[in-house]
Description:
By secondary structure, the chain is mainly α. The chain is built from 13 helices and no strands. Pfam families: PpoB2.
Amino acid sequence: MTSGAGSRGSSGPxxxxxxxxLLAVVLLVFTALAWLLTHSLAAPGxxxxxxxxxxxxxxxxxxxxxxxxxxxxxxxxxxxxxxxGITPFTIGMSRLLRVRRAGTGSxxxxxxxxxLAWLLTxxxxxTCLRVFDALAMAGSATAARSGAAVLVLAGLFQFTPLKQWCxxxxxxxxxxxxxxxxxxxxxxxxxxxxxxxxxAYCIGCCWALMVVLLAAGMMSLVWMAGVTAVITVExxxxxxxxxxxxxxxxxxxxxxxxxxxxxxxxxxA
Length: 269
């Protein structure tokens, strides 16, 4: 009787309990809502970038209202793009927390920690976007070649040891779970730090692709979906390292073409 009750109360390695399936559904629902909210918040100018032929209106100085709106939209975008990728990690953590009888709120804190890590990159992303705005005002050829340089640099980053090191951790979140799971079990502060740690690996892996997104069109659902697909291929599908190299080669190739023929940017846009 005891073993039967235990088997009903726990999940094997290849099975998900009802609670874990519900958690996965909740995360995916939040993802869908974030995509819809991104679409509703996106102004026409925010769907374009220096790789898509935009000429934004100049703005002087640092505007807190604009920065606050950017941070809000950045957080929503990161929720839309990154939440599906951490679903297996979150389910694994919820299983560990349940076995150790830790507070159920720790799972929420874990996800918030992950998103907090991405939110903290918002200042760098905003600065990058303002630089791109200035380049766009300098002329279409300058903007196009700057966007091409972004593609080349992002492609080169795909071949660096830092990229591959972070990618290994992103592809194996259970390694992080086994190494730091006890910290999350002990306290909600620990869960927050574990979530931030996993977010830091993802930032190290994906930051160059995010710069490409800013150059292509920050809130364009098409470009968001494209970058999300690239990130998913790297993190989930087999042969992640080879996929990363192929993506890098493609970025470098397109970037070199645009450096030679910057007029293609205006044609495509």
